[in-house]
C-alpha cells in the first residue's frame, strides 16, 4: 500500500481489527520511509459476492443481470431510469451490508420486490407473480424469457 504522504510503497500494518459492525477490517498502517500513519479499510467487493441458488449452485453476483430483471419488470412503465438505478443501488448496498460473502437468490428477490413496491405497483406485481411461481426454479430465466428478453439467462 503506497504511502499517501510521500508515495513510498514500503508501508507496514501496525494494527488490524474489524469495525464495530464487522462489515470491514480497519488497518492502521505506518510508512517506513517518512513515518506517516494512515488507515485503510478492507471490505467485501461486490464482484466477490456469491449468489446461492435454490439448487445450491453458486454463481458470482452480477449487477447487470439484476438490473436487467428490474428493467424488464418496469418495461413500458413511467418510471425514470434514474429512480430504478437508485433502487438497484439500494438493493446492492443492502446485500453488501449483510456482511456475508454468500447471499441467496431468495434474499435478492425479496429485496427487489420491496424496492419495486416503492417504485411502481404494476412492475411489483409482474415481478412478484413470476418470482413467487419459481418454486423449484433456481433463477430468473423463466421470468426473463416470458417477457421476451432473449438475452436473459441465469439472472439473479
Ligand atoms: Zn511515507
Brief descriptors of the model:
156 residues; alpha+beta; 3-stranded antiparallel sheet
Ligands present: zinc ion
Order of helices and strands: EEEEEHHEHHH
Name the shape in a single word.
elongated
Structural class from helices and strands?
Answer: alpha+beta
User: Oligomeric form of this entry?
Assistant: single chain
What's the helical proportion of residues?
25-40%
Major β-sheet annotation: 3 strands, antiparallel
Low-confidence stretches: 135-139, 149-156
**Mean of the pLDDT scores?**
83
Number of helices: 5
Rg, rounded, reads 20 Å
User: In whole angstroms, how far apart are the ends?
Assistant: 35 Å
Total strands: the figure is 6
Describe, in plain words, how this protein is organized in 3D.
This protein has a three-stranded antiparallel β-sheet with strand order 1-2-3, with no helix packed on it. Strands 5-4-6 form a three-stranded mixed β-sheet. It starts with 10 loop residues before the first strand and ends in a 10-residue tail after the last helix. α1 (63-73) crosses α2 (81-97) and α3 (105-117) packs antiparallel against α4 (121-132). By secondary structure, the protein is of the alpha+beta class. The protein is built from five helices and six strands, in the order βββββααβααα. Helix content is 38%, strand content 21%. Mean pLDDT is 83; it is low at 135-139 and 149-156. The structure holds zinc ion. Zinc ion binds at residues 3, 5-6, 8, 31, 33-34, 36.
Amino acid at each position: 500500500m503506497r504511502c499517501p504522504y510521500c508515495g513510498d510503497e514500503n508501508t507496514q500494518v501496525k494494527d488490524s481489527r474489524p469495525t464495530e459492525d464487522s462489515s470491514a477490517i480497519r488497518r492502521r498502517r505506518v510508512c517506513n520511509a517518512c513515518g506517516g500513519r494512515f488507515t485503510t479499510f478492507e471490505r467485501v467487493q461486490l464482484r466477490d459476492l456469491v449468489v446461492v441458488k435454490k439448487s445450491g449452485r453458486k454463481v458470482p453476483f452480477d449487477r447487470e443481470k439484476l438490473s436487467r430483471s428490474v428493467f424488464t419488470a418496469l418495461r413500458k412503465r413511467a418510471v425514470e431510469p434514474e429512480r430504478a438505478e437508485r433502487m438497484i443501488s439500494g438493493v446492492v448496498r443492502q446485500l453488501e451490508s449483510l456482511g456475508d460473502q454468500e447471499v441467496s437468490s431468495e434474499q435478492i428477490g425479496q429485496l427487489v420486490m420491496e424496492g419495486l413496491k416503492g417504485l411502481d405497483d404494476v412492475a411489483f406485481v409482474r415481478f412478484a407473480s413470476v418470482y413467487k411461481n419459481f418454486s423449484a426454479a433456481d433463477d430468473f430465466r423463466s421470468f426473463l424469457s416470458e417477457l421476451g428478453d432473449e438475452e436473459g439467462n441465469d439472472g439473479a
